[in-house]
Amino acid sequence: MQHLLAGLGNPGTSYEHTRHNAGFMVLDAAAKRWGAEWKTWQNLGVYAKVTVAGSDVFLIKPSTYMNESGRAVSSLARFYKIAPQNCLICFDDVSLELGKLRIRKSGSAGGQKGMKSVIEQLGTQDIPRLRLGIGPKPEKFDLANFVLSNFPKADQPTLDGALTRAVDALEMILSQGLEKAMNQFN
Question: Are the C-beta atoms of residues 143 and 94 closer than 8 Å to each other?
Fold first, then answer.
């Protein structure tokens, strides 16, 4: 069976360490652990192919901005004939406390524009997702400014631990299924 793991974020070095790029960070951590090598995908992003738990797994990081993420995800999914239920989208969630993970089988975009684009492009909400908490947003902070701000140094140990747990969760999803990972990591 083939799987697609997508990390959502914004391209470019100015966004590299921002909270909104938590999805990219999850995929970078997975790629590092699994020895993946990134290649360009149809000018829509970078992708890699690895084998995890006996399955072919495609990783993709769209090079479009967040609100166009679905173009890259759907392009790769359609090319390799991967059903939406065998895709998993990793992205940031400001409503979750920093470092918390939430895995779900399906649902709405919940205001996350990258996930909204993926849902629109794949034509279904039945797409598994892993959300990484980046919150809470300080009360008087503008949401856009908050998600596009860098993680402070003090948050780095929490972020590093969350990224390790996120990759552990991805491995469990691929080897033992979504339900088991939800029970373990939510």
Answer: yes
Structure tokens at 29: 């951590």
3-class secondary structure, 90: strand
| Contacting residues for 115 by C-beta, under 8 A, at least 6 apart | 8, 69, 89, 91, 109, 129
| Catalytically annotated residue among 3, 19, 20, 61 | 20
Distances (CA, A) of 77 to 16, 29, 80, 123, 161: 25, 22, 5, 12, 30
Output 50-55 pairs: Cβ under 8 A, ≥24 positions apart: 52/3, 52/170, 52/171, 52/174, 52/175, 53/171, 53/174, 53/175, 55/1, 55/2, 55/3, 55/174
The verdict on whether 17 is a catalytic residue reads no
pLDDT, one tens digit per residue, over 132-183 is 999 998 888 899 999 999 999 999 999 999 999 999 999 999 999 999 999 9
Give the separation between CA 43 and CA 40, rounded to whole angstroms.
6
Does pTM surpass 0.85? yes
